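Lab manual, section 2.4: Encoding a predicted structure.

Procedure: take the sequence of the chain (635 residues), apply the prediction step described in section 2.3, and record the output as structure tokens. A sample record is shown.
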Amino acid sequence: MMYDLEFPKNKLLKRLKKNTRLYASFLEIIEVAKYLLTKYSVNFPKYSDHSIFHSFTTIEYIELLLDRKNINTLNEDELYILLSSSLLHDIGMCIEINEIKELIGKKEFKKLVELYKKDGDADFIREIHHEISYYFILKNFETLKIIDEDYAEVIALIAKAHRKEKIDNFDVYEIKKTVSSGKDFVCMPYLACLVRLADDLDITNRRTPEIIYKYYYPDEERGKLEFEKHRSTRKVSRVDIYIKIKAKTDSQETYNALKQMIQKIEKTLNYCQKVIHKIGSFNNKEYKLTPSIVEDEIKTEGFIPKDINFSYNNEFIFRSFFSESLYPKSKYVIREIMQNAIDACRLRKTIDGDTYEPKIKVESDGKYIKFIDNGIGIDEFEIKHYFSKIGESFFNNNRIVPEFESIGKFGIGVLSNFLICDWFEVETKKASKEPLNFRIDKISNINFLFYEETSDIKQGTTIKIPINFLYPEIFNVLSLHKIIEDFFVNLEIPVWLKATSAVGNYDAFLKFHPNFQKQDLDKVIRKIPFPIDKTPREINIKELSFNDEDLEGSLYIIYSVDKKDNFKDLTKYNDGVSIRLFSKGLRIQKITSKNLYTLGGFLNFKKKSNLNLNKSQILPFSKVNGTLQKCEIQY
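Recorded output:
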């Protein structure tokens, strides 16, 4: 039975036909897969269908997801790999438990047993079947009639990616993978997303025909619910950006299971959209996935569904989340805005190289304060999936430029603006995208309001905040100057501060190589009650500098040259002498040496540190303490 006779209008297959070698191989794979996939019922006699018909349906849904332009973007190698991996993605369901250990190796098998073996063999195989599929395709590619080992490697990885795998790991799922034909590259993450989403969409009652339901109805609860979900789902279709799911049930339990299944599809769709967005476009090819919204229409009989779930009071969330535990002072809002601007500039620098000159400007006119950068910019997708979501950070999720490492930590920085205002505006533009101009309100039925008009903005982002005189430490220009300089060290991006007011103008380039020695020395000198015969020049400083692949900075001890008045005696005069800790140029906190109270300076950790919700505990203190001990011993 020929596949193209069953699906004569399939656009993917029509395009593959143009390459007779790849097309012939694909037809051979079908015949082998038909036989092997019948064996799934040995392991799963009471599970929903995982035969060749599920594989065919997966291919149907891939076509459903793609517009004609998207299909035409795919080259012949991509079509062959996409169709073949769709056929073989569930081949791991067909391998019996006694064959798995030999197939994947004792070491790997033991690891998987430790992770997943809880219930019976069937549940274990189901949990790891994507891993089994990967090994089976690699080791049996000749039997499967795959052209060669190069194609088999990519097909195996795409098949494996239909569940659990991190498709945005571009070291494994390469954006530009060349296979043996050498004609063109294969975009592995795009193909993997299509297979994963299409597999999730095969949820209709075609997977549980009436004869299977009648004679093989499962007797355990999980299996029953799986059968009922599929039996209740009538249709999956697509209209433009919408994936529409129709279902009907007379069971509240099945209704809840359907809603959970639809939420899972929404989660998969959002994840795949993010991955594809990161891929972007190159070599005049643009990879896209048009559907972005899942709509359900579930008819019920015998009960009234009430979709009542926990919701959140926005004002309470803002008050609680952006509290003193995370942002102890309002000036930390400035730090968050500045670090986002720095990340945007650094990412663009990584992409554009030496042709790009990063700039950040801070402007105040007495009514508003603006933070303007010429960084990477934001597009509508990123606003929806990152900018508007607490805990999601575009910079932290960036995988397309692996050498880039952000200084932002949590993906919540922009919302900290609501600590000092009730609304703010953003104007932004990303390369090759339309400019966007919008307002965000703290408490509103519509948090995001987009304006039709935009200024003649070039690439970058401007954040505009209304001045609130309840926070003079932020909106006083001299105070703002000091705040920004104190929060950063060795910053390679020029920052220009400009203010206009009725009493005059202020114009300055900020310096990020602060003289901490002079600041701390002045603090100690001001406290010491010098006798007439002593002068401040008798107080001295000894310095020790650091610079390696992880750490840079300098520490110094303030002491007296008078032996009768050694540096230990100066500890009582310490008034704020401290060690400033920075991570990638961003100041995190200050600490004091436990043994040398007049030990000051700064340490900047060049690499991003592990996270902790409290920003005062972000840095690796084992490294800090080790550095301080060396310094204390030397002094």
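Check your result against the sample. The longest helix spans residues 252-279.
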